[in-house]
Every structure is written in structure tokens, then in C-alpha cells.
Amino acid sequence: MDAVILNTTEDPWQELLLPVSPDGNAFTARLSLRWLPAAGKWFLSLSDASTGELTVHQIPLICSYGYINDLFRSFRHLYRGKGIGSLTVLRAVDRPSTEDPGRENLNEFRIVWSDMLEP
After folding, report:
1. Which residue in 116, 13, 20 sits closest to 72, CA to CA?
2. 10, 48, 82, 91: which one has the fewest Cβ atoms less than 10 Å from its Cβ?
């Protein structure tokens, strides 16, 4: 699968439907992005849009600084035993206003979904 950059907004409650095939596993993904003020972080959930099967529930979006932080790494085995690829959060600007995506600066980061990255 070619790497996909998620098209996000600053809306604190977002849902994206996306046809993907990470690691050759084709399905339509439903991605939910939520800003949780009590935690001060964005959280992502992943489910299969056709079955409603929830694979990943509310993982925090933590940026990769100088190394790749694969947020899906510990969930690879869950999706039909074929893996769900890799998800990373990268800086889109040289100096974002916060270390991780904040309520007002999600546009300073890119959320990238791709085939599984090597360990």
C-alpha cells in the first residue's frame, strides 16, 4: 500500500472512511479522531467500516521525533491475522507549537498510515 496521509481538520470529533490495503489486507477503514480535553491529547480508533469490528480503540497520537514511533505496532496481529500496517505521527513544520498534536495545532503534524515498517 502506498503511504496515506490522513486528511484531518481541527474538529475535535472526526470520522474518516478510507479504502486501504495495509500489508495486502484490503478493507474500508473507519478512523475516528477525538480530542479529549481531560487528557490534553488526540486519540485515534480504527474499525472495519463494513463489519463494525473495532481493532484499535483510543490510542494517543504521539509524535515521532528523530525515530519512527509506530502507533499500530502492538496491534499488528489483531486484524484478520494479516496485520494493519504502521501508523506514525510526523512533524509537518520545523518547530510545531507543541511536542505532540494539540487542540489547536493538528495541522502542524501529519498522520501517516503505510505498510508495516520493519522493527
Report:
1. 116
2. 10
